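Working notes for the structural subgroup meeting. M.R. asked for a predicted model of this chain before we commit to crystallization trials. I am recording the input and output together here so anyone reviewing the notebook later can reproduce the run.

Input as submitted:
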Amino acid sequence: MDANLKDLPQDRESLEALLRKLILEREQQQQRADEQSKRTNDLQVEILRQTKRADELHLHNLRLQVELERYKKFYYGPRADQLHASADIGQALLEFAEQLQAKPIHPEEVPKDEPEYELRRVKRRKGRRNLANFENLPVTTYVHELRGEERKCPCCGVERQEMGTEASWQVEYMPGHFERIQHIRKKYACIPCEKAGENPRMEVAAKPETAIDKGMAGPGLLAYIITSKFSDYLPLYRLEDIFERQGFEISRSTQSIWCGDVADLVEPLYKLMGDRVRQSHVVATDDTIMPMLSKGKTQSARMWVYVGDTANPYNVFHFTLNRGRDGPKHFLGDYRQTLLADAYGGYDGVVAGNEITRAGCWSHARRKLVDAEKVAPEIAREAVDLIGALFAVERQAKHFSVEERLALRQAQSAPVLAKLREKLLDWKQQLLPKHPMAEAVNYVLNQWFELSVFCCDGAVPIDNNVSEREMKRVVLNRKNSLFVGNERGGRTGAILASLTSTCRRHEVDPQLYLTQLLMNLPQAKMSELSDWLPDQWKIGHAARMAALNTPPPPPAHY
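Returned structure, recorded in token form:
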């Protein structure tokens, strides 16, 4: 230390210069350290940003994979919500069975203790198939005989005698046709009064009331148009071509007006069906887009369906201009029991502040998990297996009473629900918040109360498939007819689809039902309106057929 001190300058100015130099060097070192620290921080921030960006790209890639799988399933795959792993196993078993069937069998491989063993082959049945209701068809008999010269024996020339017959059957179809029905109303007058110069008291025989006032369309024609449009999903322009081929052209605009007039006539019956549905303990509902013509482009209007329970077995459609909660809120009115629906948030405003219990759909929940299988197959498989256990209980309780079904659900389904909820909470902690499987898990957890209602009420179904099936009618009609022209057209479609859908629910022939309805409803009293509900009409029609000792026609199948 003393030696270093000897090297220091002795004068004040030199010492100050040396000190300033040392201070400057220290400041430069501090500046370099600060810059290095800043570069390190910037590098760490950049790494974090790149990591976050990589996570976002990874999640975006997963969402794209899920979306791609959804589109591929929509266009090429089965409609059932099945995991790919299950489908792969089934395909492998199918290929194995095909290879096994194609493999030749050697005589040495045939068991010796079964001498009568023979291969089972699929044999094509010969002759007429077992046609349903073949014996109920009307019969027209044609007798075929040999001409005179053909009856002569080619050996001796003697005329051969008839020794029996050989019968065979053929099913023929006679296309529909139009008929003109002329109504002649006779006039009556009192001749003595007329001779006496008084009022002749003239009166004209009454003509049966028609479904359309001063219209030429008969009830059978109107019933055929409505059945074709709302049961067979034929657009009116195709019916126009069919009628033209049959010899009488009816423009689509005229058919549309007729459908609207029929809807006006049967609207009281439609309102009665709605009142009955609102008396149900459980009402299932769903909706889909029904495009409506508008300026520039079509407007995304909506068609809703409300399915009553077994005590009120009616399917009622309702048309609205948008998907707002006002639509179901207006239809349900003062309904206060259980509403079975999907997770659409608009129902929250419908059930809020009243006594309605909202039940959820496990088919929707399972679909979310199946769609995300590509990005988390193990989680999807385990979750779907647990949900499958819930549906297995439902299949077991299919024909149980409400009380028996509830007891079985509380004994077997409740433990599965508890286990599934625990699994879902664990998966939620493991996955990134925006991961597609995390979104599916959150969907189930957010709807957990609604999805658990079926374990508290044996009358509540585990899924909402009953209303989703009815939505297929709207989708098929939308696919073929594209849109409705205006709000009145949507209302007409809702009314007529309600009748045809309820006919299908009760296996009633809509053509026969609508024909009789349109013949009798114009002069029916309001007190008799309930007799024309499809289920009540079916009972009365079967009774009338039994009274006439005539078997009723077979139920319509779609």
